[in-house]
């Protein structure tokens, strides 16, 4: 049955879902990857497309911005549509000198300042980590891109607030090996673990907290996702668990 936020019928959502944040980016990805893409839902203007890539079914839709928005869609995809894996293909802000605008980060884990995961296991601080088979598939795909394409495998931090990143916190996160800040991965990883499914976030660095001179424009954010998309698709269609 359709959910309050997804109007697709049973069988119209693929087992693998690519989940960018921006609805326009979702449409661009769907039409680029799937000539047979069918619009199966557009509740609240959020289009959901399903088709095939190299004979394998795929669904593409947007999560919106932030963990609460992504949490609604991820829960419904896993619990109502029997989705097996979700790969976030999005953007992030660099917070370490080790990354530059345009680089890709495969998010091995996600620290967070959000309270969304605090009540999952009483007395335990939940560790939001990616599904290893998807990480391995993305890394293998990255090796195929060649050494000239900067791809990093490292933790990110998922924040509730887009603005107001404290300088001392940024420095400490970078000192602890965190490369980027975004707003969704920690919730995605926790929801996947809750449902016994798989998840990964692959993010393009679209701006940098230490140096804003090379930041992407809004149009560039929408268009410069090809390398992350290649890795995300490889993870989404890697051998089943």
UniProtKB/TrEMBL annotation:
<feature type="domain" description="Nucleoside phosphorylase">
    <location>
        <begin position="16"/>
        <end position="229"/>
    </location>
</feature>
<dbReference type="GO" id="GO:0004731">
    <property type="term" value="F:purine-nucleoside phosphorylase activity"/>
</dbReference>
<dbReference type="Pfam" id="PF01048">
    <property type="entry name" value="PNP_UDP_1"/>
</dbReference>
<dbReference type="InterPro" id="IPR000845">
    <property type="entry name" value="Nucleoside_phosphorylase_d"/>
</dbReference>
<keyword id="KW-0328">Glycosyltransferase</keyword>
<keyword id="KW-0808">Transferase</keyword>
<protein>
    <recommendedName>
        <fullName>Uridine phosphorylase</fullName>
        <ecNumber>2.4.2.3</ecNumber>
    </recommendedName>
</protein>
<dbReference type="InterPro" id="IPR035994">
    <property type="entry name" value="Nucleoside_phosphorylase_sf"/>
</dbReference>
């Amino acid at each position: 049955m359709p959910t309050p936020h997804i109007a697709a019928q049973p069988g119209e959502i693929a087992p693998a879902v690519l989940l960018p944040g921006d609805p326009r980016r979702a449409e661009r990805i769907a039409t680029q990857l799937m000539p047979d893409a069918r619009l199966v839902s557009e509740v609240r203007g959020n289009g959901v497309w399903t088709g095939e890539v190299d004979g394998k079914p795929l669904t593409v839709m947007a999560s919106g911005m932030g963990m609460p928005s992504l949490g609604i869609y991820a829960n419904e995809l896993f619990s109502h549509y029997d989705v097996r894996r979700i790969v976030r293909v999005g953007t992030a802000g660099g917070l370490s000198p080790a990354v530059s605008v345009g680089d890709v980060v495969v998010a091995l884990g996600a620290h967070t300042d959000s309270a969304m995961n605090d009540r999952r296991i009483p007395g335990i601080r939940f560790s939001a980590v990616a599904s290893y088979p998807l990480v391995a598939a993305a890394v293998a795909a990255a090796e195929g891109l060649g050494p000239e394409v900067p791809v990093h495998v490292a933790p990110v931090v998922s924040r509730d607030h887009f603005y107001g990143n404290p300088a001392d916190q940024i420095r400490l996160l970078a000192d602890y090996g965190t490369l980027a800040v975004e707003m969704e991965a920690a919730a995605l990883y926790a929801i996947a673990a809750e449902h016994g499914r798989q998840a990964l976030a692959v993010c393009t660095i679209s701006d940098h907290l230490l140096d804003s001179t090379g930041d992407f424009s809004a149009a560039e954010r929408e268009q410069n996702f090809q390398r992350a998309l290649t890795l995300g698709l490889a993870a989404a269609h890697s051998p089943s668990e």
